[in-house]
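Anyone up for a design puzzle?
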């Protein structure tokens, strides 16, 4: 009997998760008798909601690299011990011999626990992780697909907003970035800074404790100088006591719907400084935009999908495909296999070398980040 492969998406979609699915299908075609997608993530396995991906029209497959969201659907389902046992029962019953989990560190945790249950039963089922996150918080790997496109979206949006605010210099603009507990994405807004349209002026990552008084002092000083200020603040900002500066709207397990940090900071500026302020929260737009999809991100997403299939066919299991950075200029990475144990719920934070002081990101960050966004941002005339 020919091999059977199951691919599962976990957590939030990105602009390139479907590109990884494309890579999986293209590499597995002809090597596996069946290629299934779990419809709706881990919960789809429990429901045995398997989609035969080889039966899809060719045009649908070819559109995947440029399709937002997740074609097979994803989830944040809580999986308990009994469910892990049930999942392995289902894999065995459906004669699945390769499972590919495409997701972040939470999905890698799920993949690792399924692999442990498979090990207990001494079954020859391969489990391989495919990284995906806009937060870039998966441990060990240099970066993960999804981040480059989100970074390009944020940097481009901040660049354009900075031009607008500089043209009508009457207010403070606070942009809230995603990223959970890490500042990788927030720091990417530094790419927007340029001569003639200087912005963002201030960047706040969650790795440094947030101090409202210092924030107000810095905004006040910059406003007096420029008559406008552009601030980029992470959704995960915390005080020195470790408390979020705004209470989460909703939280269950690891899934957090963060409070409106940008609105809170804008209101602080209005009330305490008496200055006009606006808040912007791109939110899901920042992770789903195909218009700002990074070509490098897309190509690497396809590559990790292909490499995951290759890894399984070569007999590997309980590993995630990651990237090792070889050089920044010219940009070069190589795919590597990382034990799942090293990435299961391990969170990679932004190194302090990139955060020399409150409200700043070091220029050295650009050497690491810029290659990932797939080329320069738009070039336009400065504000006179």
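Challenge accepted. My sequence:
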């Amino acid at each position: 009997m020919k091999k059977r492969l199951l691919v599962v998406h976990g957590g939030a979609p990105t602009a390139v998760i479907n590109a990884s699915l494309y890579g999986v299908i293209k590499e597995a075609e002809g090597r596996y008798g069946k290629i299934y997608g779990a419809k709706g993530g881990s919960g789809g396995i429990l429901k045995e909601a398997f989609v035969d991906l080889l039966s899809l029209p060719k045009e649908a497959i070819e559109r995947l690299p440029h399709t937002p969201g997740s074609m097979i659907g994803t989830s944040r389902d809580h999986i308990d011990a009994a469910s892990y046992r049930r999942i392995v029962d289902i894999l065995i019953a459906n004669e699945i011999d390769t499972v590919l989990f495409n997701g972040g560190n939470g999905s890698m945790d799920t993949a690792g626990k399924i692999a442990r249950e498979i090990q207990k039963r001494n079954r020859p089922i391969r489990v391989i992780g495919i990284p995906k996150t806009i937060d870039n918080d998966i441990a060990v790997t240099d970066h993960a697909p999804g981040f480059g496109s989100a970074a390009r979206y944020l940097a481009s949006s901040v660049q354009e907003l900075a031009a607008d605010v500089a043209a009508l210099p009457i207010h403070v603009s606070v942009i809230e970035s995603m990223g959970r507990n890490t500042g990788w994405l927030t720091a990417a807004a530094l790419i927007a800074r340029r001569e003639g349209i200087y912005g963002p002026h201030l960047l706040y990552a969650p790795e440094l404790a947030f101090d409202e008084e210092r924030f107000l002092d810095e905004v006040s000083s910059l406003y007096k100088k420029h008559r406008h200020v552009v601030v980029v603040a992470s959704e995960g900002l915390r005080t020195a006591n470790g408390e979020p500066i705004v209470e989460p709207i909703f939280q269950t397990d690891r899934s957090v719907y963060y409070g409106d940090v940008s609105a809170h900071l804008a209101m602080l500026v209005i009330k305490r400084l008496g200055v006009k302020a606006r808040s912007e929260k791109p939110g899901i737009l920042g992770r789903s935009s195909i218009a700002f999809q990074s070509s490098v991100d897309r190509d690497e997403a396809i590559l990790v999908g292909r490499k995951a299939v290759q890894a399984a066919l070569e007999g590997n299991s309980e590993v995630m495909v990651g990237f090792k950075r070889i050089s920044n200029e010219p940009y070069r990475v190589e795919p590597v296999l990382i034990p799942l144990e090293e990435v299961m719920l391990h969170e990679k934070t932004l190194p302090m070398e990139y955060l020399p002081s409150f409200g700043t990101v070091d220029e050295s960050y650009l050497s690491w980040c810029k290659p990932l966004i797939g080329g320069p941002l738009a070039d336009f005339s400065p504000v006179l």
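A detail worth pointing out: The first strand starts at residue 4 and ends at 9.
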